[in-house]
Sequence to fold (186 residues):
Amino acid sequence: MSREWRRAIKKAEKAIDELSLFHTEFWNQKEFITYVNQLKDHLDHYDSLWFSGHFDNAFAKIVEDCHYEGLAERSDIRILSLPFSKDQRGKNNRRALEKLARFKLKVRVNEDLHARMLILFNESDIENEVVLGSFDFNRDGLSQAKLNSGIKSRHTDVFNSAKKFFESVWESPDTMTLKEYIGKNE
Fold:
């Protein structure tokens, strides 16, 4: 490849990177924590926020603050939980999910799920976001206690693929409401 072609490719890559719709960035734990703690801002900007992972009261508290300000009721917030065990982590997850369900959020559980993601979007907008990573929405994930990483992307293909995956798991016959899951596992 000639030097001219390499320069042209670099120039094109820079131009694409500057377009927010194609922007993808690598995140560490600190960036994830900051982003989740700005949930109120996201609820002001996006109509839909979909989460998957483990949850506990650290996350439920953030949502609770939004609930009392009336922000949570205006949005399509979906919580898709990994299965929870009878150990302390599982008990914390269950309590958080029950609290989130009391706020009238849509909460479901899939026993095969292992994915952690946050999908933020407006149906009428093209500036949608997805965060994919090893982060959980619990005390460990929302603190510096663990070394997690992931990506945040506005790339249309990445966003659409993640949204389609979430929807397929959400609608799967293997996905249960929180009440169904608790009834099955008690």
In short: Strands lie at 24-28, 48-53, 76-81, 106-110, 117-121, 129-133, 149-153, 175-177. The chain is about 45% helix and 20% strand. The mean pLDDT is 87. The CA atoms of residues 56 and 138 lie 5 Å apart.
